[in-house]
Amino acid sequence: MSFNDPIDRRGTHASKWDLMETLYGVSPEDGIGMWTADSDYPTAPCVIEAVRRAADHGVFGYMHIHDDYLKAIQWWMRTRHNWQIDTSWILTTQGLGNAIALCLDVWTDPGARVVTFTPVYHEFRIKIEKAGREVVACPLKRTGDTYVLDLEDAQSRLDGTEQMLIWCSPQNPSGRVWTADELRAVAEFATRNNLLIVSDEIHHDLLYPGHTFVPMHTAAPEATERMVLLTAASKTFNIAGQRTGNMIIPDAKLRSEMARRLAMLDYKPSALGVTMITAAYSPEGAVWADAQMAHLDANRTIFDAAVNAIPGVRSLPLQSTFLAWVDFSGTGMTHAEINERVRQKARIAPSDGPTFGPGGESFLRFNLATQRARVQEACARLQDAFCDLQ
Fold first, then answer.
1. Which of 6, 44, 56, 329 is the most exposed place for a label (fewest CB within 10 A)?
2. pLDDT digits over 90-104, tens only?
3. Neighbours of 323 (CB within 10 A)
């Protein structure tokens, strides 16, 4: 099956489609779901075949974390990101949302202040608030079509009681790929302010031509003792429903602290999740991941051209991710007016920009990890919804 073969996810309990009417008022019968960050096409054949073999075997008993799984992760990081890790650094969690919640629980105190750079993945704020901690939002600086750090402004927002920085690399929602120099500056900022760095690197495989991802640990090894890196195959291979992610913790003290908490909670990963990731992180998986990026690059080109033709609307050029970050500020409309046109007239359900924090007020985020025909249909609907601006 190709990335463009039609597949209907409605009625399969897929959040992206079966919840969009409840959350956004867009019926799945004639609407287009472009919010939740998962894909509308099947995962890699090597992953599907691994699940098929497991089903044919028919036994789904207890399974332990095994060397094939750990070495597959190690191989992937080395060959795809030039990152040399030890398999002993890897701890497995129930996805990265769970990993962030665990980091907050283990390494911050109730009521503690936690730093984020916004606009950023809205679940950072949600997890911080659910944990009874306080969000310290430090806005990124918009420079033309991209975002840059403003660490002087960020420093002015701190009062010295902050305990953690939750960092996003590549950046969601803007798709920005940070340079090694920028990552070192962030690590120096964290060191200066005695912050633990939790670096969410889940989109690290989704890179467009001309861009190279640098793991935080590679950029700033001197900050190892205050660094926890979060990775997963879930975005790359569309297996987020397996709720299996990894903490890669090079520092022995931090790793021991988290391992103790996981043991106390009696956490063990899903057997099928481990099986799927082991299959995904392979030469066959790498070939599929590259083919997916070619598909996404074409979708990005089509979407940007159509959206940028609407007066006052700008889709920021993506460096990574499949999530287009679209600025409607040039239309002069309120966010409510923009949502009315996009949801009611165009019948599209994207993610709401303001949920990503300061800097997202005039934006919507559109998921392009779908069939090309659906992207083209969304483009036509958006142009029609704003046709009076032409």
1. 56
2. 999 999 999 999 999
3. 24
